Amino acid sequence: MPKKTKKTAAPLIETQNLHKSYFSEELETAVLHGINLTIHEEEFISIMGPSGSGKSTLMHILGFLDQPTQGKYLFRGEPTRTMTDDELAAIRATRVSFVFQAFNLLPRTSVLDNVMLPLLYHPTIPASERIDRSMEAIRAVDLTDRALYYTNQLSGGQQQRVAIARALVTDPDVIFADEPTGNLDSTSGNQVMEVLQNLHEQGGRTIILVTHEQSTAAHAKRIIHLKDGLVDSDVQSFKRISAKTNNTLEK
Amino acid sequence: MLLTDTFKSAYTAITAHRMRSILTMLGIIIGVGSVVLMVSVGRSFERYVLDQVESFSSHLIEVYPTGFEKFGRTLDSLSFADYEAVLKLTTVKDVAPVIFIREKVSVGTEEISPNIFGTTHHFFSNYSLKLRDGRILNDSDFKGARSVAVLGFQAAEDLFGPNNPLENRIRIGQRFYTVVGVMDTVGSALLQDLDSFVYVPFTTARAQTGQKFMSYMTMKATIEDDALAMADVTSLLRQRHGIENPDNNYDKDDFRARSASQATEIVGTVGLGLTAFIGLIAGISLIVGGIGIMNIMLVSVTERTREIGLRKALGATRQDIMRQFLIEAVALTMLGGTIGIIGGAVIGAVLTAVASKFVGHVPFLLSIPALLSAAGMALAVGLLFGIVPARKAADLSPMEAIRWEG
Ligand SMILES: Nc1ncnc2c1ncn2[C@@H]1O[C@H](COP(=O)(O)OP(=O)(O)OP(=O)(O)O)[C@@H](O)[C@H]1O
Ligand SMILES: [Mg+2]
Fold first, then answer.
1. Could you tell me which of B31, B2, B11, B1 has the C-alpha nearest to residue B327?
2. Residue B191 carries which DSSP code?
3. If you average pLDDT over residues B6-24, what whole number do you get?
4. B2: which residues sit within 8 A by CB, 6+ positions away?
5. Which CATH class is domain A41-64+85-244?
6. Does an H or E element contain B406, and which?
7. In sequence order, what are the beta bridge partners of B60?
8. Are A237 and A64 in contact (CB under 8 A)?
9. ipTM of the complex
10. pLDDT of residue A29
11. Which of A163, B20, B317, B361 is most buried, most CB within 10 Å of its CB?
12. Helices marked H in B300-317 — which ranges?
């Protein structure tokens, strides 16, 4: 599934002074204090930072799973604040995909049905193509022989690969992965990283990855450090590690 | 999202959470089933009682003496002349006078204390009593005051066991009677007392007891309206007894006429009360069932909220979510409701069939109002507790829903 290139003048993602606070019973927890970021297509970015620095919070906003409290978020130059519920749903269905640390698969449901799930909500991909596309995505994560297994019958690493296949199946502009290897041992973690890296290198996909581990982050081409809800550093990485040559991820 | 996909998602969600689905349906099945069962059985037995009373006594009128009971004496206001006078009325027919003989009945060493009726052959037709063996009392028994007796089914069995009672002699008090007939069993739990009665000619009873008045009399209305016939009898007797009673104050009368249709009405009222009571219990069980459904749905809200968050994260619109949950709730409640209705009806039919074996035919009446209100309530509860939490969840951002802790 080679990535179709949609070159436009505007960057894929642009944030200006992005703020996020959580509110619970009159209590305000300010988490992001003004994030400015520009991300272009076909980048492979690692977001790092201490626990509680707001990495997940930022990812959820960028991935359209949550709304910022303040500031601008432009997606392909379009301001997202004024988008309707249905427009946001359409972007989630077609443009962005999310890979969660906790997999978030439907239990007692087959791998194929899980991977096919986003296609049910896709506005343009015809129903007749669903199975082929899903099997293609399952093949890309090397799980063809498990396609009809229930997801609860798979190992953690396999489940995360199912989640990646599900993220892949709609052919999105960008895949967000929030600590995708966080619940995995180093071998399966490395397999997952290999899959993501392949998607970037051979598929030309934009991937934004959150990780705690320097070794995992080192797979990316650009590393953004967050600290206390602000961008602490944003550097291009030169010594990239290939998951294929690095058999075990150091924990 | 295509509608067929919505159905498929609903189906997948129901089957993927089999236990949750079964428990939800169980609440509905029990709630709906018990309402249908209880109300239907209540209505069936009410119908049964009414049928019994009606079959046995349509247009039946009974006239009793009333007044202050004198110690050790029966009431004596109904004379034989009253009987002769009532015979002349055209609004009633088949008038049967009755004198009770208060004696024991024996054959050899077997002794019983039945109700002994001194009466005429009209008595048998008035109460639709059927003969099993021999004959009933006839006119010549009456005219000749003959010492013959007809036994109720149970009385015959008690006195003669397996032997044929016909042409055998029984003793009533100090007098011997020849058995000329045995009545068939009435075959109904409600009326089984009739089986142990003993019947002798009215004139013979009068001679044996020396009684100068009737214990009571029975007759049939010849016109459709029993109340009119009853009024006719009442005014005749008031006139004969010299009672002025234009405002129908029964305390002034020394007798009382009553019709079986009155009894039917009373039974009907009692039955209605019973149905209302059963309906109340059924309503309570429906509420309990509803709370059961509610609990299961509320318990699964956390799980469902996360699922909704995930589906939204994958691109589901609010409408997609609401449709899926609507279909799920409707499918579960309709399936559960249908099973409940069928289950309640089948158990009700079996219960009445079993009861029919013991107490005579009990018709099975399915209560449609109970059925509809039970189904409606189940649907309402199912929708309310299936849809409201889903709507709340659909209003959250995907991440808020996925992280929901309940
Ligand atoms: N739903 C919420 N309500 C209130 N506070 C929240 C919520 N989610 C996150 N927070 C707070 O926001 C801060 C940032 O959380 P976030 O999950 O973004 O951190 P993180 O960088 O991803 O950390 P980690 O590396 O541990 O995953 C934390 O202090 C957390 O307590
Ligand atoms: Mg996090």
1. B11
2. G
3. 85
4. A120, A127
5. alpha beta
6. none
7. B220
8. no
9. 0.91
10. 93
11. A163
12. 301-313
Long-range contacts of B127-131 (CB under 8 A, 24+ apart): B127/B56, B127/B57, B127/B60, B127/B194, B127/B218, B128/B55, B128/B56, B128/B57, B129/B183, B129/B184, B129/B186, B129/B194, B130/B183, B130/B184, B131/B181, B131/B182, B131/B183, B131/B184
Say which range, A71-75, B103-107, B110-114, B359-363, has the weakest mean pLDDT.
B359-363
Could you say which DSSP state residue A246 is in?
Answer: -
Give the ligand 1 atom nearest the CA of A179: 27
CB contact under 8 A, B397 and A107: no
| pLDDT score of A248 | 47
Amino acid at A160: Q
Say whether B398 and A117 touch across the interface (CB within 8 A): no
Are A109 and B312 a contacting pair at CB < 8 A? no
Q: Above 80 in pLDDT, residue A15?
A: yes
Percentage above 70 pLDDT, chain A: 91
Mean pLDDT of B96-107: 94
Indicate if ligand 1 lies below 6 Å from the C-beta of A52. Answer: yes
Pocket flag, ligand 1, residue A102 (CB < 6 Å): no
Q: Using one digit for the tens of pLDDT, what is the confidence trace for A121-145?
A: 999 999 999 999 999 999 999 999 9
Measure in Å the smallest separation between the Cα of A168 and chain B Cα atoms: 11
Nearest protein Cα to ligand 1, atom 10 = A22
Residues of B in contact with A86 (CB under 8 A): 317-318
pLDDT tens readout for residues B34-89 = 888 888 888 888 788 777 777 666 788 999 888 765 455 557 889 999 999 999 99
Provide φ and ψ at B325, rounded to 5°. Answer: -70, -35
Interface test with B, best of A97, A106, A124 (most B CBs within 10 A): A106
Question: For residue A117, which residues of chain B lie inside 8 Å, CB to CB?
Answer: 311, 314
Spatial separation of the C-alpha atoms in residues A117 and A106, rounded to whole Å: 9
Contact A85 B5 (CB under 8 A): no
Model pTM score = 0.71
Tens digit of each residue's pLDDT (9 = 90 or more) over B112-154: 999 999 999 999 988 888 899 999 999 999 999 999 999 999 9
Mutate to test the interface with B, among A120, A128, A175 (most CBs of B within 10 A): A120
User: Domain coordinates of chain B in residue numbers?
Assistant: 3-53+265-403, 78-253
